[in-house]
Write a structure and sequence with these properties.
By secondary structure, the chain is α+β, with helices and mostly antiparallel strands. Among the domains are: 596-637; 683-785, Methylamine Dehydrogenase, Chain H. A hairpin with a 5-residue loop joins strand 43 and strand 44. The termini are far apart. Residues 22-305 form the WDR11 first beta-propeller domain.
Length: 1176
């Protein structure tokens, strides 16, 4: 036999449609590279690269309101593998943690019965990656173990909580957006609930603030619109609840900490975006739109793209969509790995996938626009770009545009740095089903005759008149055909590639409608009216039924006799008389006389062939050849020549069963069976083999065994039997029954129910239509706008993702088993055993880049971390790459200076970008100091009250800017209660001398103040006398570790700062804190590469440790240890050992060997004699 490769096994799946309003916030783009979206009670998993729905999760009974992917900021190994884990919350208060690959629920959580307000996995700690924080209305915050479903702690607050946001720079800080204001929590920890109720603040607008009121020249025109908003909207954070007149912005849509800067927060309102400085408690940036403009819905901040002056320019925008009552944008999500891909979710079920592209700008792009130019970076994956190195410009946002320039600075242009412009490109579009109701019909079943070209196509008739054809192997839309002008009521297939569909318009005053019956050819899309000019002003069509051999069609009307058509010729065979009984149910019989007719026709053709061939010729021609020719001829003419006899049964309003036979143009009445007294009005009939099943409006099923002449009635007590269908397949006697409240599957052989589905009991949707898609799977259309392919048990449409037959291959290492994913990662990272990189993987977009021999180890590690969506790897290698290169460059400079090069050559560092300010205290001290100075100057400009001025003065004193601090202290008005203290402080700052007595006195006062709870004031005094190192120690003693690190960065020398930060790293490694991943980043910024290697090995992160040490060796930053060890060995007289280790120390080692060439080997005889004694 010919080996067939047709996949006849269809997976359970869900075809989704329009979204519910409660699904508006239920969308998330995870580090795993996939999008999760709630659609009614289901959750779609979308691959944005191929625009495919690769999984649908179904277990919720209520609408899904929140979805959240788990974070990937942990070290991955076999015991902690790459996995697809998702948390979802619904409107009934249930939270489910999913294993997305298998489509099963890992655990279910239920605390209250109200919709979940917000969800977040705790990512900024190393204790556990299973901690899930949830807001349960109205005012509860609960921390759950997402692995076991155990409640760890619960905390209630006084006001209704709407959402929350964690400080990305300090895991103990979080902000709650409540119905009245903001609650700041500073003692959050996973081990216990917050002890305090938090600090409650309110949003107000000071109308008469002298700092904001600027005189307007008389000739100047009054500003309008957005400019007016920028001038007047000055928002303060206050501690008292403002009056109703003072509150201008009370409809906050979004609250979140800025990931790019410490102590900054973003508030989104319909027409303003406000950037708050939490230290100053005031806005430092406003983005406003005109009153006539389209209001904001959502905003997303990027961690690595920040500016000093918080003024934002429009750089790129995508095409607009047409907004109607039923089509509205719901939510936007951005890829967290690369930050240059976005998805827009629309209420009609569409997912629009946009990609931000960079293209080279013209020389004079738009000089009048006022926008500062954007330049492409001169590096790739954290390292300078080689002259012939391949790169992926659109790999991520920071590979498309370099770090934003500070206003007023000239760009450091180089030969390969180009000005670029950004634009959005629509790269994918997923369309959902339109609004229900639906009429569905599966194409004819798979047989041995059509297996070579069979496609499992499902036709879906919609309310807008179009017919959608889906391929159920992939779940993708095969064709969309605009067939009718009104709602499609039914579809019947007449072949594997054509179908009939009918639609009825709204009735007129006389109850008559316009009927449309269309014949559609799928390959060409050709449609024609099957009934010709008929159809205007007549009773509506109730149903159409195609015969088993696709020869005949019955059209049943509501108040009109039925019509019988020949499908092959498109002619009307019979229009029944007016006295013909009204039809309530009708079904064609599967029995026919086609086989007997074929046998007769074959016998006749064979006889004719024998007559035309002479006896001599007949003896020479094999009879088998003649039979083959005859068979081929007969097959080509069968469809035209043979009209088989078929028959159907129908029932009238009294329940009487009629039997009609059709053969060619002949229609004959058959037997009539009187009604069954136990049955009501018959609503539907199904016939297969020797079994006939009737269902009535009272919920009774009557099973007829035609061969045994027996009938059996079963009352289901489910109400009206709307539709019944037999499953395809020879000998398969399963029956699918549709009721008004659900569906059932029956076994007609045993006359017993197999499975049941009922609204309100195990589903929350109503069934609109049913059919079989294979012999063991059903397809159901429901009023939530979805079409589900289910197993016969009708339990769930979730499935294993690794068993899917997808149209396009999906790149997602998280779908692999743990060992395979780690093997792939190692394969991509390093292949030292071969010397060159080879790769048989064809589905990696950056294949040519990975094969590029110029690609360094650090670049490869960063590239693979992005490819895998490994958050922990990406953070580690970003910092490691930067500081390995920085320390290697510093070492080269010291070598050049030692070799006697000129001062300009030796001290001029090569181009090296600074670490972005989103890394905060991990940045270089010089850049960090400059940023803090710029920030305090901005705060000084924005200050609007005495409290703001005092904060600015305190900050300037800590930064060592005493002259400017004195000026601010002297601005205090005489009627202020702090006038005397500020004046004395100004005198103290200006008269401080470096004499011993004054310093010891001030140090004593500062120590006493710190001991009596005045920590901030004591630290200020210590900074005034250049005792910032002592101040940092006091801060660390009192638990102010972040403040101590900040002060060390801005005031201390590199050596002193390193001591403070090392103590901080030790504190982070302590069991009470257990944040070793943060400690490693701190040590990387200090150049403590040996300690980092030890810690990585101690944490059993062997692959990361090995790659890091390999990178250290390649960049020569560990050569200092080799050099010192060589010196030690030489001092001990071990010349051979010293030579070995000096050879590994680069040029400095060579210099050491040259120095030692002329020296005699110095061996102390006493030392060597004692060694001999020990050895013996």
């Amino acid at each position: 036999m010919i080996p067939y490769t047709v996949n006849i096994k269809l997976a359970a799946r869900t075809l989704t449609g329009t979204l519910n309003l409660q699904n508006k916030t239920a969308v998330d783009w995870g580090w795993q590279g996939l999008i999760a979206q709630g659609c009614h009670s289901s959750i779609l998993i979308i691959d944005p690269k191929t625009s495919q729905t690769i999984q649908v999760l179904e277990k919720h009974k209520a609408n899904v309101v929140k979805v959240k992917w788990s974070r990937e900021n942990y070290y991955h190994n076999v015991s902690s593998p790459y996995c697809l884990r998702l948390a979802s919350g619904d409107a009934s208060g249930k939270i489910i943690v999913w294993d997305v690959v298998s489509g099963t629920a890992h655990c279910e959580i239920q605390e209250h019965s109200k919709p979940i307000q917000d969800l977040e996995w705790l990512w900024n700690q190393d204790a556990s990656r299973d901690l899930l924080l949830a807001i349960h209305p109205p005012n509860y915050i609960v921390l759950w173990n997402g692995d076991t479903g155990t409640k760890l702690w619960k905390k209630s607050y006084a006001e209704n909580i709407l959402s929350f946001s964690f400080d990305p720079f300090d895991p103990s800080n979080m902000a709650l957006l409540t119905s009245e204001g903001i609650v700041f929590i500073t003692d959050f920890t996973h081990s216990k609930p917050p002890g305090s109720a938090g600090k409650k603040v309110y949003i107000a607008s000071p109308h008469a603030s002298p700092a904001h009121t600027k005189p307007v020249p008389a000739a100047a025109p009054a500003p309008t619109g957005a400019k007016k908003a920028l001038n007047k909207v000055k928002v303060l954070i206050i501690n008292e609840k403002p009056t109703a007149e003072a509150v201008t912005l009370n409809d906050c849509l979004q609250l979140s900490y800025l990931p790019s800067k410490r102590n900054h927060m973003l508030l989104l309102y319909p027409r303003e975006i406000l950037i708050l400085d939490l230290e100053l408690s005031q806005t430092v940036g406003v983005v406003a739109i005109e009153r006539s403009g389209v209001p904001f819905i959502q905003v997303r901040c990027y961690p690595e793209q920040s500016v000093h002056e918080l003024v934002y320019d429009l750089r790129s925008q995508c095409d607009a969509i047409r907004v109607t009552k039923t089509v509205r944008p719901y939510r936007m999500v951005v890829c967290p790995v690369n930050e240059n891909n976005a998805a827009l979710m629309v209420s009609d079920g569409r997912a629009m996938l946009w990609e931000l592209k960079a293209h080279t700008a013209k020389a004079a792009a738009n000089p009048s626009s006022g926008l500062s130019p954007l330049y492409s970076p001169v590096s790739f994956c954290g390292a300078p770009l080689g002259p012939n190195q391949k790169r992926i410009q659109d790999l991520s946002l920071n590979s498309m545009i370099g770090q934003t320039l500070i206003p007023g600075e000239a760009p450091p242009l180089s030969s390969n740095q180009q000005e670029v412009q950004l634009k959005f490109l629509l790269t994918g579009l997923l369309s959902g089903l339109p609004l229900p109701p639906f009429a569905i019909r599966m194409c004819p079943p798979l047989t041995t005759k059509n297996i070579n070209h069979y496609q499992p196509l499902l036709a879906v008739g919609t309310s807008n008149g179009s017919v959608l054809v889906y391929n159920l192997t992939s779940g993708l839309l095969h064709k969309e055909l605009s067939v009718h002008s009104c709602e499609v009521r039914g579809i019947e297939w007449v072949s594997l590639t054509s179908f009939l569909s009918f639609a009825t318009s709204s009735p007129n005053n006389m109850g008559l409608v316009r009927n449309e019956l269309q014949h559609v050819d799928l390959p060409t899309g050709r449609c024609f009216a099957f009934r010709g000019e008929r159809g205007n002003d007549e009773p509506p069509i109730e149903m159409i039924k195609v015969s088993h051999l696709k020869q005949y069609l019955v059209v049943v009307f509501r108040d009109k006799p039925l019509e019988l058509w020949d499908i092959r010729t498109g002619t009307l065979l019979r229009e029944m008389a007016k006295n013909f009984p009204a039809v309530t149910a009708l079904e064609w019989s599967p029995s026919h006389n086609l086989k007997s007719l074929k046998k007769k026709q074959m016998a006749a053709r064979e006889a004719m062939a024998r007559q035309t061939v002479s006896d001599a010729e007949q003896s020479s021609v094999e009879s088998s050849v003649i039979s083959l020719l005859q068979d081929a001829e007969s097959k080509s003419e069968t469809s035209q020549a043979i009209s088989a006899r078929e028959h159907f049964v129908f029932t009238d309003t009294d329940g009487q069963v009629y039997h009609i036979t059709v053969e060619g143009n002949t229609v004959k009445d058959g037997a009539r069976i009187p009604p069954d007294g136990s049955m009501g009005s018959i609503a539907c009939i199904a016939w297969k083999g020797d079994t006939l099943v009737l269902g009535d409006v009272d919920g009774n099923l009557n099973f007829w065994d035609l061969k045994a002449r027996l009938s059996r009635g079963i009352p289901t007590h489910r109400g009206w039997v709307k539709k019944i269908r037999f499953a395809p397949g020879k000998g398969n006697q399963k029956l699918l029954v549709m009721y008004t409240d659900g569906a059932e599957v029956w076994d007609t052989k045993e006359v017993q129910m197999v499975s049941s589905m009922r609204i309100g009991r195990n589903v929350n949707y109503r069934i609109l239509d049913i059919d079989w898609c294979t012999s063991d799977k059903v397809v159901l259309a429901s009023d939530d706008g979805c079409i589900r392919v289910l197993e016969m048990a009708m339990k769930s449409a979730s499935y294993r993702m690794d068993e899917q037959d997808l149209t396009d291959p999906v790149w997602c290492p998280y779908l692999l088993v743990p060992r395979a994913a780690l093997t792939l990662k190692a394969f991509l990272l390093l292949q030292p055993w071969s010397g060159t990189f080879t790769m048989d993987i064809t589905q990696v977009d950056m294949k040519s880049v990975l094969l590029d021999p110029v690609l360094s180890l650090l670049q490869r590690c960063l590239l693979v971390s992005r490819l895998f969506g490994d958050e922990s790897d990406l953070h580690f290698w970003t910092v490691a790459s930067h500081y390995l290169q920085a320390f290697a460059q510093a070492r080269q400079l010291s070598v050049l200076s030692a070799e006697g090069q000129t001062q300009s050559d030796a001290t001029q560092p090569p181009p090296q970008n600074h670490l972005d300010i989103c890394h905060d205290v991990l940045c270089e001290s010089s850049y960090f100091q400059k940023f803090q100075l710029d920030r305090v100057h901005l705060q000084e400009v924005k200050r609007s009250s005495y409290e703001h001025t005092k904060k600015c003065a305190d900050q300037l004193l800590l930064l060592g800017q005493t002259d400017r601090a004195v000026q601010l202290l002297l601005e205090t008005s005489a009627d202020n209660s702090s006038y005397y203290c500020d004046s004395l402080k100004a005198c103290l700052v200006t008269t401080i001398t470096s004499s011993g007595p004054s310093q010891s006195t001030i140090k004593l006062v500062a120590t006493n103040m710190i001991a009596n709870g005045k920590l901030a004031e004591g630290v200020q005094l210590l900074c005034l006398i250049d005792k910032a190192a002592d101040a940092c120690r006091y801060l660390q003693t009192y638990g102010e570790w972040n403040r101590a690190a900040w002060l060390a960065k801005v005031r201390l020398s590199p050596a002193e700062s390193s001591d403070v930060l090392k103590r901080w790293a030790e504190h982070l490694c302590s069991p009470q804190v257990n944040h070793k991943s943060k400690a490693i980043l701190v040590l990387l910024s200090l150049g403590c590469f040996y300690k980092v290697g030890e810690m990585l090995h101690g944490m059993r992160q062997f692959d990361r440790a090995a790659l890091f040490i390999e990178a250290c060796l390649k960049y020569g930053v560990m050569e200092a240890a080799f050099l010192e060890y060589a010196r030690l060995l030489r001092s001990l007289g071990l010349r051979e050992g010293a030579a070995l280790w000096a050879s590994r120390a680069g040029s400095a080692g060579e210099q050491l060997m040259e120095e030692g060439e002329g020296l005699e080997e110095s061996r102390d005889p006493s030392i060597w004699s004692s060694i001999k004694v020990q050895l013996l």
